[in-house]
Specification:
single chain; eight-stranded antiparallel beta sheet; alpha+beta; about 180 residues; OB fold (Dihydrolipoamide Acetyltransferase, E2P)
Length: about 180
């Protein structure tokens, strides 16, 4: 009887190990220098609105955050509002979540690293974050830039987090 229990337990553990998948994606950690080098535009601003849309092929939901630009630290942009597209969102009660994806909240202040790309909604030119969620800092009321919501591999010391936004801006300018 004991042999049967041990054998059954081993078989269950083996099946679980063979057919399980990781719960969360893990990305390579990017330093502020790497984020800066990979970006076309680095800016601070406030999230004016967030809207979710079906991707062009209807296989996913994407969201667009409209950001009112406060300061451009790297690059140039002729308008005072910029749109950032990212995976995930909700439409008519249907949600699409993406592990380690960024989220924007209306009214939040952000420090973001952007590159241009093709929209999954309509193929137009749009901006995306460098390094997914790594390319976004939320700015708190004390002027501290904070990252959250993702898992990574690599040296955590390469990530600037919980840092004064002025200092982060100096690091970006020093990489130019």
């Amino acid at each position: 009887m004991t042999k049967k229990i041990v054998s059954f337990s081993f078989l269950c553990a083996l099946v679980a190990a063979l057919f399980s998948t990781p719960a969360a994606a893990v990305m390579k950690s990017l330093s502020t220098i790497e984020l800066t080098e990979g970006s076309e535009i680095v800016l601070t601003g406030s999230v004016n609105s967030v809207e979710s849309h079906w991707a062009k092929n209807k296989s996913a939901i994407i969201s667009r955050a409209s950001i009112i630009i406060e300061e451009i630290i790297k690059g140039a942009f002729s308008e005072n509002v910029i749109s950032v597209e990212y995976d995930g969102g909700e439409i008519d009660g249907v949600g699409f979540g993406v592990s380690d994806a960024v989220h924007f909240v209306q009214g939040e202040m952000v420090f973001i690293f952007l590159k241009s790309g093709m929209s999954k909604k309509d193929g137009s030119m749009i901006f995306n974050l460098i390094g997914s969620a790594q390319g976004k800092y939320a700015i708190d009321n004390n002027g501290i830039c904070k990252k959250s919501g993702f898992a990574m591999i690599g040296e955590p010391g390469t990530i600037d987090n919980n840092i004064k936004c002025e200092k982060l801006s100096e690091i970006v300018k020093g990489a130019l």
